[in-house]
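We emphasize that the prediction below concerns an isolated chain of 280 residues; any contacts that depend on oligomerization or on bound cofactors are therefore not represented. The input was used exactly as deposited, without trimming of termini.
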Amino acid sequence: MDHKNGKWANQILEACHDDDMWGNFHTMSRPVKGRPITSEQALRRLYILGYTIEDEVIQRVVDRMVLCVKGEQKIDGYYEKKHDWPFFEKLMLSAWIRIFEPQNQYALEVAYGWAEIAEKAFASGVYSREDDIRAFTERQGRKPKSGFETGFGMFYHAALLKGVLTQKTESLFLDYYLTKPDGMYYIYEKPLNKVPDVFASRETSCYLAALEVLAEYDLAKEKLQFVIDWLNANKDDNGQWDFGSKANDSVYFPLSDSWRKVEDRKKDCTERVSAFLSML
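Result of the prediction step, given as a C-alpha cell string:
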C-alpha cells in the first residue's frame, strides 16, 4: 500500500527545516514524544513508509550526505570525542546512501574499503579480531580507536557491505551476524539465530528489522530459511500476521494512519512480513 501521503509521512515532512534536514543527523534511538526527531530518525521512518531516491526530499538529503562523504561539507556540528567522529560519519552516511542509492560511487568507495578489511578479518574461515585489527591498521595507518572500528557488528556495517564481499566472505559475514551474542547494534540486541519467544511483540518487530538488513545479501535465502519457516508457522487462519499493539513504536509501525482497528494493524504487519518474504 501507499503510505507516502499518509499521516506519519506528512508529520515528518512538515518538521523538515529550511536546510532540508531535521536538526542533528545521528541517533538510531526510538523517537521520544515531545522531542524533535533527528535527521537519521526521519530518514529511517520515511524509508519504512516507502520513500525512495526518486522522491525529492530523499534526493536532497542523499546529495548532502554525498558532499559530507567527499569531505566538502559537514553534516552538522555534532561530535563524539570517544570516536574518530569524521571516520564514523563516513561509515554511517555511506550506509544510508547505499540504502537509497546502492550504486552511488562515493558510498561504494567507502564500502570497498571496509570490504577489504572484512575479507582479511574472515580469511581464516571465521571472524578473527586479531586479523581484523591488523587489516584495519594496514589500511588506515593507525590502530582502531573504538568499538565500531572492529567487529562488524553494527547496522551500518551490515547496510554498507551488501554486494561488495566475495561469496565466501559473505557467507561467513552472515553467519557472524546470525550468531553474535549481542545481535545487530542499534537494531536488535539478541542472537539473530534465535527467534523471539513471543511472536506478537515489539521484540519480533525489531528482530525482523535486523533480518531485513541481512535479506539484501545474495546468500540470505539459504541462511534465513529458519525465519521463513517461523513466519509461516505464525500466520493466522486468514493468512495474516499480527505483531500485537505493543509493536507500535513510531519507527517500524504503524504504517496505516491509525491502529484503532485491529484489521489495520494486521494489514500493516502482513504487508511488512510479505515484503520481507518477497526479498527471499
